[in-house]
Amino acid sequence: MINKNAFRNLSYGVYVVSTLDGDRPTGCVANSAMQITSEPATIAVSINHDNYSNACIEKTGKFAISILTEESDPGLIGIFGFQSGKDVNKFDGVEALEKEGLSVVADACSYLVCKVINKMETATHTVFLGEVIAADVLKEEEPMTYAYYHKVVKGKSPKNAPTYIAEEEETVQKEEKWVCSICGYEYRGEIPFEEVPEQFVCPVCKQPKSVFVRK
Amino acid sequence: MINKNAFRNLSYGVYVVSTLDGDRPTGCVANSAMQITSEPATIAVSINHDNYSNACIEKTGKFAISILTEESDPGLIGIFGFQSGKDVNKFDGVEALEKEGLSVVADACSYLVCKVINKMETATHTVFLGEVIAADVLKEEEPMTYAYYHKVVKGKSPKNAPTYIAEEEETVQKEEKWVCSICGYEYRGEIPFEEVPEQFVCPVCKQPKSVFVRK
C-alpha cells in the first residue's frame, strides 16, 4: 500500500535554480536540493525534463542555487516557478548578482554556484551533481522551508515538481476561500475579496484579480 | 570564494534509513533524502561509504526511510547516528514495525519502503534511487527538520554527514555550557549540571554523565 501523504513529511527548502540560455539568464524553482559530499563540496539538485532549465544546465554545465527565505518576496516563486524561461526572461525586473558568470537572486539568504560533474537520469527528472565553485551567505534570515511555503504562503507546487500529485490529493478544507487559479495563493486580506480593487494582482504570480476562484 | 556557512541554509529532515544485514535489521541517520519522481514515486537518499548501512543496502537492494518528528525520542538519533551497526543491533529496544521485510521506526510520522533501481557514486557517498513499494503515515506530528534538531535539540552531525565540516566551523558561543562529548547534546536542565545525579545519561546518545564537558 502506498499512501502518498506519507511523502509530504519529507522536508525541503525553496530554491531558485538558475543557469544560462546562451547569454541570457534563466532559472526555475526547485525544492529538491541536498549536499552530498563535503570535500569537495557537492550538491545534488533534481530538475524535471520539461523544465526549460534542464536543457540549459545540460548545455552550460553550470547551475546556481539561490536559497529563498521566509522574508523573500513570494512573487519570486511566481516568476521562476509558474512560467517558462522559453517564453520570457525571468530575470527581467529581478534584482540579481553576477557570480561566476551566472545570475543569482539577491533576495536570498545564500547562493551556491556549481559545475556539473555527474548526473543520474530518472523517468521524468535529471538529478544533477554539482561541485560547488563559489558560495556565500547574503543575509541572516530564516530559510524558507517547503512546509512554510505551503502553510504560510499557502501556495501549491508547479506541475513539474515531484510533490505535485500528492498535493492534488489533499483533502479539501471546509471553509470558503478565494484562491489564485494559476499558483494556488490563498487570499487572506482583511477586506472581503469581492471588495478588493480591480487592480489587485496575485502577490505570488502577479496574475490579475480575475483569475481568482472561490473554493 | 566558498563560504561553507552558505550550505547551512539548505533545508533537510531527520530520517532513520534502515535495511537488512542478512536477517538482522540495521540502519543509520540521514538528512539527505528527497523525492525525485511522482509516477512511479522514487526517492533519492545519500549514504556515506563508511556507514555500514551502505554495503547492506547494496546487498539487499532495499531500504526504508522513517521520518522522525519533533516529538520523536531524540535518543533514536544517538542509537542510529552515533554507533555502528557492525558492532551492535541498533533495533534492540527500539519499537519497530515490519514493512515489506524491513524494520521501520514506530516513533516516526511516516515510513517509506523502497527498492533500489539506480545509484550515483560520489567521492564519499552513494546516492541510492529507490522506487517506493510501500508508504504510510503513522501519526500526525510535525516532521523534525535538521534546523530544529540543531537549534532545539542542539545536537551535532554524525561525522559521516556531509554537513559535518560546516558545523565544526561554527562560531563558538560565549555562554558556558555542558555538552555531551559524544553526540553534542547540550544540557539545559533546571538544576546546575554539577548537581545532576551521577545516574544521569545523555538523552540523545545514552552515554553517562562523565562524558559531558564544559564549553
Give a description of the structure.
The structure is a homodimer of 215-residue chains. Chain A is mainly β. Chain A has 2 domains: 12-147, Electron Transport, Fmn-binding Protein, Chain A (Pnp Oxidase, Chain A, Roll); 174-215, Rubrerythrin, domain 2. Helix content of chain A is 13%, strand content 34%. Chain A is built from 4 helices and 11 strands; from the N terminus they run ββββαβαββββααββ. In chain A, the strands form 3 sheets. Chain A has a 7-stranded antiparallel β-sheet. In chain A, strand 6 (96-99) and strand 7 (102-105) form a beta hairpin. The two termini of chain A are 31 Å apart. Chains A and B meet through strand 3, strand 4, strand 8, strand 9 and helix 4 of A and strand 3, strand 4, strand 8, strand 9 and helix 4 of B.
List keywords for this structure.
homodimer; 215 residues; mainly beta; Rubrerythrin, domain 2; 2 domains; 7-stranded antiparallel beta sheet; 13% helix; globular
Largest interface: A-B, 58 and 57 residues
In CATH, what is the class of the largest domain in chain A?
Answer: Mainly Beta
Q: What oligomeric state do the depicted chains represent?
A: homodimer
Summed up, the helix count of chain A is: 4
Shape of chain A: globular
Indicate the proportion of strand residues of chain A: 25-35%
Strand order of the largest sheet of chain A: 2-1-5-8-9-4-3
Q: Give the total of beta strands of chain A.
A: 11
Largest sheet of chain A: 7 strands, antiparallel
Distance between the termini of chain A: 31 Å
Number of domains of chain A: 2
Helix content of chain A: 10-25%
